[in-house]
Design brief:
Layout lengths: L1 E2 L5 E9 L7 E9 L7 E3 L8 E4 L5 E5 L2 E5 L7 E3 L7 E8 L2 E6 L3 E8 L2 E8 L6 E2 L10 E8 L3 E9 L4 E10 L2 E8 L6 E9 L2 E9 L2
Antiparallel strand pairs: 1-2, 2-3, 3-4, 5-6, 6-7, 7-8, 9-10, 10-11, 11-12, 13-14, 14-17, 15-16, 15-18, 18-19
């Protein structure tokens, strides 16, 4: 939440819709008040997840969320997407002035905003993960597409494989060398039978596995 004046403020979070299975779908929302919080209106930023917000003055501000950085120059009446060039979940944003800004997120991500005569840009000052991580797929349970995310701290060969509950390999998702970074892959299971499966990440000496549930 941020208030520009006693009456003019913004609050951010997320709304969701539940389809009857798995994790509810969420999207980020921005609420705006001109009455000191007595009445609120909802502004649509197009975020696909909960978001964070920062304002420089009554007109200029920014918001971040999953894979998105947004800005407004009309007090939140409209929002425009900035391109960060990174596939990251961002958690917080701050602007000390109109020409400089910072955003941070998962995996140690730190982005810097610099507005110059050569153009407006976001650049990574640090975003490489320090350790191997295999995250839980989302949504889970799912039908029929889900996302698997993992972090690589160094250049290494990656095997990401799907197994059924008997341990039989049913699909190879990734088998290749990859540079350090944060990776997300979208997996479509429509050709598989409903049920529980396991996905395993192997890279160097690291191995981890997690369970997912596919419901048609």
């Amino acid at each position: 939440m941020v208030f520009i004046s006693a009456g003019n403020g913004f609050a951010v979070g997320y709304d969701w819709i539940y389809y009857g299975w798995g994790t509810p779908f969420t999207w980020g929302i921005v609420c705006h008040t001109l009455s000191g919080g007595n009445y609120w209106s909802i502004q649509n930023t197009g975020m696909s997840s909960s978001c964070a917000i920062s304002f420089i003055d009554s007109l200029h501000g920014g918001a971040v969320g999953r894979n998105k950085i947004m800005h407004t120059s009309d007090g939140g009446g409209s929002w425009t997407t900035d391109t960060s060039g990174l596939n990251l979940d961002l958690l917080s944003i701050d602007f000390p002035d109109l020409n400089h800004g910072w955003a941070v997120g998962y995996g140690g991500a730190i982005l810097r905003y610099h507005n110059t005569t050569m153009g407006t840009r976001w650049a990574a000052t640090r975003y490489l993960p320090d350790v191997y991580i295999l995250k839980q797929n989302y949504p889970n349970p799912f039908n029929s597409t889900t996302t698997i995310e993992y972090n690589l701290p160094k250049l290494s060969h990656v095997d990401l494989v799907l197994f059924d509950i008997t341990g039989r390999e049913v699909k190879s998702l990734i088998r290749q060398s990859q540079h350090p970074g944060i990776y997300r892959i979208s997996f479509d299971a429509k050709s598989l039978a409903s049920g529980e499966y396991f996905y395993r990440l192997s890279s160097g000496n690291f191995q981890a596995a997690k369970k997912l549930t596919f419901i048609k």
